Amino acid sequence: MGGVCFEYDVDGENFASAGNASESVKRTLKQLGVSPASVRRVAIAMYEGEINMVIHAHGGKAAVEIFPDHIEIRLIDRGPGIADIDLAMKAGYSTATENIRSLGFGAGMGLPNMKKYSDEMTIDSAVGVGTTVYLRINF
Amino acid sequence: MPGTLKTVVLDSDKCIGCITCMRRCPTEAIRIEHGKAKILYDKCINCGECVRSCKGGAKRPVYDSFDLVSSYAYKIALPSPSLFGQFNNLDDPNYVIEGLLALGFDEVFEVGLAAELVTDCTKKLMEKGTLPRPVISTACPAVVELIMLRFHELADHLLPVYAPAKVAAKLAKKRALGRGIPADDIGIFFISPCPAKVYSLHREEVSDEKYISGVLSQSDVYFRLVEKMNKVRSPRRLSKCGYSGLGWGSSGGESNSLGLGNYIHCSGVRNVLGLLTEMSDGKLDGADFVEMNMCPGGCVGGVLNVENPFIARNRMRQLADKLKIPPATMQEYGLEEDFFLWDKQPAPSTAFQLDEDRFAAMRKLMKVEEYLKKLPGIDCGACGAPTCRCHAEDVVLGGGVLDCVRLEERK
Description:
Chain A is of the alpha+beta class. In chain A, 37% of the residues lie in helices and 29% in strands.
């Protein structure tokens, strides 16, 4: 069976609306009877991804495909790109501004958390072009 | 949440089929069918929001008749903390106790006192550190219902301890039996500020035994009670509830009594939904305790109250300041943690699932998405469903065709 596709715009100017996409996905997964533990993993991983796009890339797009046994999430932005992916993956490392940190974001846990809560994660990034993060979470 | 017990029913003659309650319902459990509001009870969490919002008084909360009290030989009243906020110039809780006795009750056991015992038990459980943080208060039954309906991922955060009204009923019954009163003679009546507690005390979702004989409405009892209270001249000192227990009637009272620094409390349907959403995204993982009350301001905001919640809250605060009684302890009452712990977990509801079978659910989801592309997405409510998505789901699950005024216009 193929997947059901959803696409969401992530508004780069609005912290409050970050999480709208993951909220909608969460609702859908619950309607499909996906286990609470899996819903939580998806919610946290995807929310972190959305926040990342707001903080670093002025927003972007979340393309989600839901299959009976797993979900694939692509977080696509046209932001500055990640110069050193290994460094970005390190817990606590962040390029977020002081301003962002004062809002309680930019703790350098976004990517590590996304990795922690997903079964597969790949980052495709080019400086000056943008970043695509692929996440797969099995139910 | 199956079964025939309903806490809100419709007075069809009064319902004009407006969409106010349908819009306000936090769980999309109301549809307008044939010009009347219909409650989908499998999605209803008994929060009372439709009762609160209905302009015509067509939504009626269900509770037990006061006449039921007289059918028991030994009658015990369980007044909730919020009851004490309903009266003008009440400077001594003993007037309420004396009033209840004058109404025909043989004994009064304050739910606020039971709340103090719940606090003591909660503190002990939290000190052990084994409960997943943040611990979610289970005092508001509508919050528990909401979690079991829409936030299953938070179910293991629920504090597995009886709500104060149930502890009060259990303890009052135990003590009455201990005094040699035959079980059949004992009638235990909680005086409730809300329909959710009427439901939860009758349903026994977390306990194997039923301790309550009936749940009365605070507003129903109020008018009978005021008359008796007015005749009380010098009340005896019967009240045992202190400032801590009385505080439970307002949002934040439970958290305050726990003496924690890192806690969150909020009240009101929209705020609770928002906070649950944040929590399910893992954003409150640092907090120790989260207290949520469906009603604005806490139990004082329940739809079975008489007084404005914020006026009642002010009165209760002033009354609590006068009470010097320290919080009751489990030791004092000879109780162990077991006395408070749930016998069983509440069952998660699958009312929001499109189908029990994952593949069938996927097919239905695809159909819903297909319908959604046709619908205007303005959630006008004219079709009788609160949102376009809801309408699409209703058609996919229940059959029929899309019935949208905008689609008609386009033809």
